[in-house]
Specification:
The structure holds two protein chains of two kinds. Chain A contains nine helices and eleven strands. By secondary structure, chain A is α+β, with helices and mostly antiparallel strands. Chain A folds into three domains: 3-146, no CATH class; 193-277, Helix Hairpins (Orthogonal Bundle), CATH 1.10.287; 285-420, Heat Shock Protein 90 (2-Layer Sandwich). Chain A is rod-shaped and about 155 Å long. In chain B, helix 3 packs parallel to helix 4 (87-96), helix 7 crosses helix 8 and helix 7 crosses helix 9 (218-233). Classes of the chains: A alpha+beta, B alpha/beta.
Chain lengths: 425, 253
Amino acid sequence: MKLLNYTLGYLSIALLAIISVWAVVFYLNLIDEVRDSLDDGLENNKMVIIQKVQKDSTTLARAGFSAHSYAIRQIPERLGLQVKDRYTDTLMYTPSEEDLEPFRMLTTAFIHQGNYYELKVVASTIEEDDLLEGLLYSMIWLYVFILISVVVINNLLLRRIWTPFYRLLDKLKTFRLDRDQSIETTTTRVKEFKELNETVDRLVTQTVNTYHSQKQFIENAAHELQTPLAISLNKLELLAENEDLSDKHLEAIGQVIETLHRLSRLNKSLLLISKIENNQYGEMTKVSINEIVKTLISEYEDFAGIRKVHIHVQENAGLDAFMNKDLAAILLSNLLKNAIIHNIRGGDVQLTLNANSLVISNTGIDVPLKQQKMFRRFQKESNKKSSIGLGLAIAKAIADLYDMDLSYSYYQERHEMKINFKKSR
Amino acid sequence: MIVYRTLQTLRSCQSFPTLSSFIHQLCTMKLLLVEDESDLLEVIQQSLEKEQYVVETADTYAQALHKIISFEYDCILLDIMLPDGDGLHLLAELKAMDKSDNVIIISAKDSVEDKIKGLDMGADDYLVKPFHIAELNARIKSVLRRKALNGRDTLKVGNLGIDLRERQAEVGDVELLLNRKEFDILSYLLINKNRLVNKAALAEQIWGDYMDEADDYEFMYSQIKNLRRKLKESDAGIEIQTIYGIGYKLIPV
């Protein structure tokens, strides 16, 4: 839900409550005021009628209200003494409306020439349900009008006020730590947005710096390791040529050489990833995936042969990609190698080349692998000593660099890696 | 890897003028090793001296510059990251003196750009640290052979001769039929004869960087087994020894 609508939602509920409470209070006040004013009028009429009676006693002879707004009847003294001025609401028939209409009635008593009389004075009053109805409709109109105004104001004013915020949001959405250096903020007079801009700016700068220094660190560390590695490796190789060594010593040296070799490969892989992520592989060309696949298969012939793994290729179409040629070879070779290594004896690898995608499917362990874990660095599915767990991370880094989609699925007891080369085009 | 392959193609395409074609390979070769890391300098020097080369060393830019101006070398191993100057400048100096065709760059940098830059400036080869001694030997010998031989690229040990350009092997006058991998293994071991060749170095040489699953030498063992059988059947005067746990050594018998 958008912020504008969100505030609007709360505002409409609040307005409804406020207007309703206000309407009740207004109504009660209004009714009270009307009664007060009517009662004053009735009091006045009472005085006028009593004075009239003093002058003209024929008035007393009239019974009922008939055409007048008052009625007089004689009452016994006992009752007359008890009467106090009493205001009541009542309904009376009015010929004009041909219906019962609400009236305000003052019931009082007076003494004329020793006789007690009860006097009822009436005045037409407002119809409360009409008033209520009228009030309700005007309230609804007021409510609708206020809501429309709020929507309009919100959209015009708030939208403008919130512009810096939405701009910042757009910038943050497209921000990529590995590509952008900083974030551009718009100037604003609003204190909160200023603070937000400053905070985001600081955070981004800090993060970018940390990211770069970490990347730099990995790169430097890997570089700096090359020379000591070279020294240790070469010294051991030289030492191994010593004629005096026993088989036991040689075996130990061989193991250390092996370990150093692994360390060196690990180092090279780390450098490779860091270079891919730094986009240091320029020079993109149109690369024929079909050609690379053919070359790779001939490279891996022995390797697959010794494991009794058969490689089949199905070329449904010529597949070209616009990328760095070395990286294309690394990407495909890592996937192909995995398909061969994590296979079973007598299994097979099936490569299918389509117009936009390459599918490498292979037999293997009959348990599907976890897609979200497999592309992470140093994630090993096997506990092979020599596997350093960077092959798929490298493949993923290359796919990400060129906005390709690299995905894994397990289908009919086969592991399937699919590269979608033209995801973004 | 691709770069390396390109290098190999480049190398095989180039035919260098053979000014010193009369120099025989057995003559003492003079090498200059420019490396600022003293430990590495020492170990490479020791290893090269085993090959009967005369090795001179320089650990600074200034020293190296002085030596290349004053002396002639058959091969120069050049670390391009030196504390007091850029090794690539030395290369430029060498190029100006028309001596850059026998330079092998040794560097911790393995980016394609660095390699291309070095090769464009006239270096003959580019070796990334860390490397195996066998690999360094092979590269040096490749440079020296090209300097020394007139259009042919052959190696001879006992009655076994191989032609690296034609990719043919002979025992006496009889051709020894080898498959591609067997030939590669044999030539690499032959180049490093009497030296211990690490199996990882051999695997990397024959199968390339792709083949980095260290405990998968199985495929190599079978090739070596076949190679040994063929060498024995043809009475070649060499033997491929297995050095337990480490690798192989080719020795004349």
